[in-house]
Amino acid sequence: MNYQGKKRIEEVKKQWESNLLNKVLKKFSERKNTFVTGSNKEINRLYDPLDLESFDYVDDLGYPGEYPYTRGVQPTMYRGKLWTMRQYAGFGDAEESNKRYQYLLQNGQTGLSIAFDLPTQIGYDSTHPMAHGEVGKVGVAIDTLEDMEILFSGIPLDQVSTSMTINAPAAVLLAMYIAIAEKQGISKTELNGTIQNDILKEYVARGTYIFPPLPSMRLITDIFDYCSKELPKWNTISISGYHIREAGSTAIQEIAFTLANGIAYVSAATKKGLDIDIFAPRLSFFFNAHNDLFEEVAKFRAARRLWAKIMKERFRAKDPKSMMLRFHTQTAGCTLTAQQPDNNVVRVAIQALAAVLGGTQSLHTNSRDEALSLPSQKSVRIALRTQQIIAYESGVAETVDPMAGSYYLEKLTTEIEQGAMDYINQIDKLGGAPKAIEKGFIQKEIQNSAYKYQKDIENKERIIVGVNQFQSEEEPMKDLLKVNPEIEKRQAEKLNSIKKRRNEAEVQENLSLLKKIASSEQNVMPAILSCVRSYATLGEVCDQLREVFGEYKDSIKI
Amino acid sequence: MKNARIRVLVAKPGLDGHDRGAKVIARALRDAGMEVIYTGLRQTPEQIVETAIQEDVNVIGLSILSGAHMYLFPKIMELLAEKEATDILVIAGGIIPNEDIAELKKVGIKEIFTPGTDTNKIVKFIKENIEITKT
Amino acid sequence: MDLGTRVRQGDTRAVAKLITLVENDFQHAQKALKDLHQYCGKAIVIGITGPPGSGKSTITDRLTQHIRKIGKKVGIIAIDPSSPFTGGAILGDRIRMQDLATDQEVFIRSIGTRGHLGGLSRSTQAIVKIMDAMGKDIIFIETVGVGQSEIEVIKVSDIILLVTIPGMGDDIQALKAGIMEIGDIFVVNKADRDGADKLITEIEMMIHLNGEGKKNPPIIKTVGIENIGIAQLWKEIERLIVELEENGQIYQRRRNRVRKEIFDLFQENWKDMFFQLIGEANLEREVEKVLKQENDPYCAVEKLTEKFKKKIFQGGNNIV
Ligand code: B12
Ligand SMILES: Nc1nc2c(ncn2[C@@H]2O[C@H](COP(=O)(O)OP(=O)(O)OP(=O)(O)O)[C@@H](O)[C@H]2O)c(=O)[nH]1
Ligand SMILES: [Mg+2]
To answer: Domain tally for chain C?
Structure first.
């Protein structure tokens, strides 16, 4: 902005304030003394060019597909290809989940996203005492390769991209995926998909850890290394802010803690001698789309810009692909209410819109029965249709980064980037994300925000329609999904039967080899592959690793 | 009693990792003047019951959002009965379908709080339902 | 069967209930404590103190697991601060000890300070007795995370472990003033981190400065989370216990402890008596006068003391 132009705006603004604004304010006060974003950042009455004085279009935004990628990672964005519509799903056993996937694909979904049950995510077989009551309840139960074969039967792995929400035992599930591809006659190099594989956020927000941080990080770098050679199209990690936000963080904290974790993974891999420009292009991210539309759009843009700078300046990456933050988004489950569940459809629509306006690469839209049970088939369909309406009817996908240039949005983008950077500096001072987690710093920050969120609702500083205002009597929702209680027994029978049919000597040999390799510095992936190919169970494989690595216990005070 | 405090064990049974709600509850109870013991994720029913007894809590607050409540909650109630500790007030929260709530109340869980509950309501419920004068 | 007998038989519920009584209403708990006293004195009491987050709970957990293997019965008292505003507390130490929760020979009790300063709760000593009477061989007391003045643990323990960690920076200097002097054994925990050896050198220097012919306390490196150094730490504790028993230190400490206990109890009673005989109203009246400058606090105390003496003299029977 030139000097003349600035002067003129200031003058007009002053006049407006004295002639109009102040008079109106005298007569009619505003609804609240202060207005804040969803993350409690104060919002001004309005924004104008004066707020963007130090803004530089080329440096701060540039053009899509180019550094610093604020406007998006591809030059044409959704004009070229819409985002991938990917609904997270899985429950009961492999057979039932397979049916749900077939249904989703038939209804226009373009990618798969697998939800595993808790025993699977924590490396227990369905017959483990701790698995009692949990088998198939909140995801699909996988014990051996046989379950995976059923899960993907009739789904050609070279034609879908598959995302698997699996972390501590990611290597095992990835190995099973490779093994069934082999059986389908598909080459590893064709496999397209993502494993979440982000252990750091498990310690702070998601809770499905098995091993302590150090050996867990080693498993992750082993996977980076293996995939960079064998599975060139595979996203080796999905560095996730989603769960951090759902655990209660603010938007700024979501970005800050996620990128801090990202920094930790990149550091670990480069320390191991991996070439940044070989593994970094395969990193992907996963964010939350919460209620505050503008703040969320700004958040996605800020995250892209900040990561690009970190990769270029801090890690000296050369390949532009290393600097691109590509991400999946899920709408915020924690905003969805058990009261008047149909209202959730509207919330999800706004949140999904934020994700699209923020340039997401793929999207899960939550179902209206989110706060009641796993989604019913009908609810999932509405959720999927919501994305489709945004894509095909709203027109927002027809131009790239349509909200750029809004004074408010650009200001917010900068503020969020700055706020996140401040946190990252603080975490660096503590010695990086793993140390900050060990000290409980990140957990405490999230907990404080979560508690404030709850208190704000109770004090009515945050209005949730149907919960603390506009309540109404209602009939309980019908046709909720109920998981078949027989699954646990069925799964146990299947497991026992495969144990009888497999070549036991081979299994034991593979398992002890794995144990030996885990104790060495060698990459564990090939040994895990041999184990799963011989139908060793997930629990058996994880037990070998437990013996070598030990187990992590929840241990952070509130 | 001169110096009595309400003591509460907030516990997460099973494999469930959803701890946002449990931690919010723990803090709210603390801010209401209670002594809250939080034992972290992945607790077995045996650990929960033994802890409740050693800590002589007035209340056990269980939290499950992962659907395993119909196995884990009754198991905990069974162990409490075995240990003759049924005087402890047991309440729970999380994602619990309506039809399960009725069954769980039958096995002795006094109240179940589902999403959207104001924590003040929980504090009030506890204060109205325990006898702090017992020794 | 009365509570005392059940406690002695190791009845977990009875022990837990008696501890609650001690915490909530000390006067009423005294009867049971009287009965139990004769069964006390066998347990070794180990205080574990150090700054917040240094690993006190982790070390307590690991030491307990270690000595459970040689059959020792263990009691643990874990203290966390209560909020001065609401009186509430989150008692979190136990989160690191849950592997011990179902071991019938381990009894863990988490307690809040309830306004008591010094790093312990008012009830700590009585809880030690209860655990002692129930047959515990070793009783660990984990204090709140301490700064420099919370050294009361010295008054209830036979020996004290001071847990420190590398990277405390200047904190070690601040610690010097208070708690560094009370450690019988220095534990340098988190030795997996940089700076453990530097910390040891610093501690050694500081001990030398303290000088005065006292034997230098041993310094043990540990990595609590990985169970490294724990066996050695226990060996050192056992050795020290023998040493302190032989040179009369433990006797001396226990003697001090009993003296303090008697005096504290007396003070408690005296305080109660004051309120019973003089009454809140009289006190308030004096407060009012002092505030209005009609009297000074010194004369007020003299007046109240006179009144107090007279009442006692009149035969303040059954006032305790
Ligand atoms: C946040 C959230 C997450 C976060 C958890 C973060 C964390 N650290 O807690 C993340 C993203 C990590 C997550 C992950 C998963 N989630 Co989730 N999650 C939710 C969500 C959206 C909100 C829960 C929440 O925290 N709400 C805010 C808090 C404050 O409320 P609350 O917990 O309900 O607590 C209130 C009451 O319930 C009650 N209460 C709760 N506990 C207690 C305890 C006591 C003693 C008392 C008195 C009261 C009480 O009082 C509280 C205050 O009002 C719910 C859906 C929903 N909207 O409820 C799904 C939901 C619980 N998740 C679900 C699933 C399936 C999962 C996964 C298992 C998916 C998978 N297969 O991987 C994973 C794995 C998690 C794991 N490790 O166990 C399902 C469970 C389905 C079921 N039970 O049938 C739900 C219902 C979503 C759905 N419809 O599919 N999730
Ligand atoms: N790196 C490392 N971390 C440790 C070690 N010992 C404990 N910790 C971690 O340090 C943190 C604090 O441990 P605690 O045992 O709770 O410490 P504390 O002194 O009891 O803490 P407060 O009771 O809160 O004062 C936890 O995250 C432990 O896992 C160790 O030897 N090395
Ligand atoms: Mg502790």
So the answer is: 2
Mutate: best of A137, A478, A542, partner B, most B CBs <10 A: A137
- Cα separation, A462 vs A485, whole angstroms: 39
User: Pick from A119, A338, A554: which is nearest to B41 by CB?
Assistant: A554
Chain C closest-CA separation from residue A457 CA (Å): 22
Q: How far is B33 from chain C (nearest CA, A)?
A: 4
Query: Each residue's pLDDT tens digit in chain C (320 positions)?
Result: 788 899 999 999 999 999 999 999 988 899 999 999 999 999 999 999 999 999 999 999 999 999 999 999 999 999 999 999 999 999 999 999 999 999 999 999 999 999 988 889 989 999 999 999 999 999 999 999 877 667 889 889 999 999 999 987 655 665 656 677 789 999 999 999 888 999 898 888 877 766 555 678 999 999 999 999 999 999 999 999 999 999 999 999 999 989 988 998 898 888 888 888 888 888 999 999 999 999 999 999 999 999 888 888 776 554 44
Residue B119 structure tokens: 């924590």
Strand, helix or coil at C159? strand
Evaluate whether C79 touches C121 at the Cβ level (below 8 Å): yes
Query: Scanning the structure block, which residue is given the tokens 């001004």?
Result: A44
**A16 found inside a domain:** no
Q: If you search the block for the tokens 């509430």, which residue do you land on?
A: C88
CA B15 vs CA B68, C91, C92: distances in Å: 9, 22, 20
Q: What is the ipTM of this complex?
A: 0.96
Range of the domain at A105: 69-458
CA distance C36 to C4: 6
Residues of C in contact with B130 (CB under 8 A): none
CA of C71 from ligand 2 middle (Å) equals: 26
Ligand 1 neighbourhood includes B13 CB (under 6 angstroms): no
Rounded to an integer, what distance in angstroms lies between the CA atom of residue C7 and that of residue C18? Answer: 8
Q: Which helix (H) or strand (E) holds A6?
A: helix A3-15
> What residues make up the domain containing C274?
259-319
Ordered by where they begin, the domains of chain B are 7-123 (3.40.50.280)
A383 and A510 co-located in one domain: no
Is residue C252 one of the residues assigned to a domain?
A: no
Helix axes A343-357, A377-392, angle to 10 degrees: 40
Distance from the Cα of residue A208 to its chain's centroid: 15
Query: Among the three residues A458, A478, A512, which one is the final residue of a domain in this structure?
Result: A458
In a domain, A140, yes or no: yes
Note whether C148 and C179 are within 8 A (CB).
yes
H-state helical runs in chain C: 3-8, 12-24, 26-37, 56-68, 124-133, 171-177, 196-210, 230-246, 249-277, 279-291, 297-313
Q: Is A267 in the same domain as A130?
A: yes
> C238 and C104, same structural domain?
yes
Question: Quick one: C25 and C138 in the same domain?
Answer: yes
Angle, helices A538-549 vs A170-184, to 10°: value is 140
Q: Cβ < 6 Å from ligand 2: which residues?
A: A 438, 555, 557; C 50, 52-58, 93, 96, 145, 189-190, 192-193, 223-225
Are A366 and A333 spatial neighbours (Cβ–Cβ below 8 Å)?
yes
Domain boundary among C246, C270, C301: C246
Q: Are residues C170 and C309 in the same domain?
A: no
Residue C254 lies in a domain: no
Complete edge-to-edge strand list for the sheet that includes strand C185-188: C106-112, C74-80, C138-142, C44-49, C159-164, C185-188, C219-221
Tell me the three state secondary structure of residue A133: coil
Pairwise CA distance, residues C295 & C298, whole Å? 9
CATH of residue C157? 3.40.50.300
Between CA C114 and CA C121 the distance in angstroms is 7
Assess whether A443 and A503 both reside in one domain. Answer: no
Judged by a CB distance cut-off of 8 A, whether residue C89 touches chain A is: no
**Does residue C86 share a domain with residue C171?**
yes
Which residues are bridge partners to A193 per DSSP?
Answer: A162, A234
